[in-house]
Amino acid sequence: MTDNPDLVIRGGSIADGLGGELFEADVAIAGGRIVEVGRVSGKGAEEIDARGKLVAPGFVDLHTHYDGQVTWSQDITPSSQNGVTTAIMGNCGVGFAPCRPSDHQRLIQLMEGVEDIPEPVLSAGLPWAWESFPDYMDWLSQRNFDMDIGAQLPHAALRVYVMGERGARRDPATPEDNSAMAALAGDAMRAGALGFSTSRTLNHRTSTGDYTPTLKAGEDELTAIAGAMHRVGRSVLQFVLDQARIDEDLPMMLRVAEKTRCPISFSVAQADRAPRRWRQTLDSINEASARGLSITAQIAARPVGLLLGLELSRNPFQTHPSYREIARLPLAERLTRLRQPEVRAAILRETATATDDPLFFRPNYDKMYLLGDPPDYEQPPEKSLGAQARRQGRQPEELAYDAMLGDDGRGMLYVPFLNYADGNLDAVHEMLRDPHSVPGLSDGGAHCGIICDASFPTYLLTHWTRDRSRGEKLSIPFVVAAQSRKTALSVGLYDRGVIAPGYKADVNVIDYHKLHLHPPKVHYDLPVGGRRLLQQVDGYDATIVSGVVTQRNGAATGARPGRLVRGAQGSLH
Known about the structure:
Blueprint: E1 7-14, E2 23-30, E3 33-38, E4 46-49, E5 54-57, E6 59-61, H1 69-72, E7 84-89, H2 104-115, H3 119-125, H4 133-141, E8 148-154, H5 155-163, H6 165-168, H7 175-191, E9 195-200, H8 219-232, E10 236-241, H9 246-260, E11 264-267, H10 277-290, E12 295-299, E13 304-308, H11 321-324, H12 331-338, H13 341-349, H14 385-392, H15 396-409, E14 413-418, H16 426-433, E15 437-439, H17 456-467, H18 476-490, E16 507-510, E17 516-526, E18 530-538, E19 540-545, E20 548-552, E21 555-556, E22 564-565
Parallel strand pairs: 1-4, 1-5, 6-7, 7-8, 8-9, 8-22, 9-10, 10-11, 11-12, 12-15
Antiparallel strand pairs: 1-2, 2-3, 5-16, 13-14, 16-19, 17-18, 19-20, 20-21
């Protein structure tokens, strides 16, 4: 019995985060914690009528790139608009601490190249009020946000900090380098890092084309760093691998985990060139788990899809000589030229040329779609531009060209390049169901002009539990547990992700039947007017962080109770 709770959520349909059946109950909150679930007789200082609504724990997004945004903004959008109440940043080995002043530009170029966050935005927005990782954490701890933020130590920053130019050019680390990195990693853990992240993919390059400094880091280096962190406290090793090298790199990462007893977490996706390799990878994870290793596969909730357009970072014609002549013109001027018959004819006559851009794929119009409104991320092959063009007796390039000219030059094309080898999401369904997987890879805060996947948590509910028509669905309790409790546990946050007495009062009140994602649109709201893709979301009646309403009916309340999370929280038992 709670006499005077701060907030009572009345009569909602509770998905408690533990995976059990929905049940109707009130939820009482006091002092930032859930204090009662059931029939609450005491009147709250504030009350929310949740009758007919879904009440779920706040979502935990363990794969974001808000490392820069948290330094210039207190609102961690778009994730906070998608029910996320805790976001983990510092993934893929990229971030901004530790960093010497002489390396500021180097780390900016790496983040720009890997995560498509424009250099002018980072240069204007980052205050660089730190050098060491503990300094960065201390500085962030003085700020407040509309959600909680957790940080990981990024390998690229650490390697360059210790090894300088040798680290940047991917030289092997010496024993002395390893000792120095290990010591700083231990300091990062004591400062509250939740883990350590690294990348071994050729797709991760600086904006000048150099590969990420961590690409060839040796097993001895990774073992020294992960071991030092895990000796200080519970730490997770997050990494990203190339599909082509997974047979070599995954066994190495498993050896690191075995030697250090450090939990590991990495992204698993379906690639077109090896459409069943993800199954082999999950089988390897299950075998390793049976040996006692702690392993989590991060699964994207839908295809990892590129958005192409004239207002975006890439489009199908960007390597055509006639387009390159006008590519740097302002959008309005480019539109005028693109509408001229002779310009159109020249561009359509030309073909795409080679480029070393890892996110530019020679156009395959049988894997290119119009996203639509509402956006449809699981379209059948017959809806592709290639199939439409054949039915119309036209060239698919014409359809793509005209589509991008639509909406005053803001039309977008959608190219699913991971998780769509079969032309459906059946593989994703199987991946999400795996006992060692969690939803991940939303990349909130990153890929500002080409990918818009921070809406993954909302998509899990709309598509997978309600709207899917081309295959099996998932239950609401399963999806909520996966995106709240399971993700929280994977990074050592035992105090959240459950609606039960004693847990942190991070809660979503959702009008499930009205939950809806709008098509992505470009906004110019980053520092110096920088561009990013955002999706409007309808259906979140309230998002609550530490007992305080931060979002109400799709609008921010201005409350910012979120804080930097320092280290593992609570206890598993």
